[in-house]
Design a protein that fits this description.
It is built from two helices and eleven strands, in the order H-E-E-H-E-E-E-E-E-E-E-E-E. By secondary structure, the chain is α+β, with helices and mostly antiparallel strands. The strands form two sheets. It has a seven-stranded antiparallel sheet.
Length: 183
């Protein structure tokens, strides 16, 4: 009888040990995924309207730029400095080494010109009404990206000397998808 009780106790201890190990593995995987692979961002402000509105929640792919390079049109989550206190969401307009310029168009706004070609931008809210205080044409430094909000007249972005192009090391990840609101 004692041997049977001892055997049951060993089995329960073994089960408990296996359960604790499984829980630790799951928790470590969750921490890894949350901090190194996938994140979330709550949009603040109106700079990315109409694509994203204040309060939208976005899933961020943090691994994508470890295996590939950012591309024009990517919506990224970044900071303007090495201090990542405040993350922002912007769209990549120009890549490292490319020249950015702004030229007036017939609507009284400005066309964004990359390497002498007008950038087709169906995603902007009302076009580009101003070009900031940068000196144009502007060549994007190597390792950096020229970013702008889609709501051009209500966006603080690379058009301002105080901000300039965003260094790749300050890019946290790429917008993967919006989770809130669902529609």
């Amino acid at each position: 009888m004692e041997a049977e009780v001892s055997s049951k106790r060993k089995n329960k201890n073994k089960e408990l040990k296996e359960w604790v190990i499984s829980l630790v593995i799951v928790l470590l995987a969750a921490v890894f995924i949350r901090y190194f692979a996938i994140g979330t961002l709550v949009v603040k402000g109106v700079s990315m309207e109409p694509a994203f509105y204040h309060g939208n929640v976005i899933i961020v792919n943090k691994l994508i730029y470890k295996v590939s390079e950012p591309e024009r049109g990517d919506i990224i989550i970044c900071s303007y400095s090495d201090i990542k206190d405040e993350l922002i969401i912007k769209r990549i307009i120009a890549l490292p080494g490319e020249t950015v310029d702004f030229v007036p168009n017939d609507s009284g706004k400005y066309d964004v010109v990359i390497e002498g070609n007008i950038l087709e931008e169906s995603y902007t809210k009302d076009g580009t009404g101003f070009y900031g205080d940068m000196q144009y044409p502007y060549t994007v430094p190597q390792g950096c990206y020229f970013v702008m909000g889609d709501n051009r007249d209500n966006s603080t972005d690379s058009r301002w000397e105080s901000i300039g192009a965003v260094n790749k090391k300050n890019i946290v990840g790429k917008k993967w998808f919006k989770i809130w609101p669902v529609l």
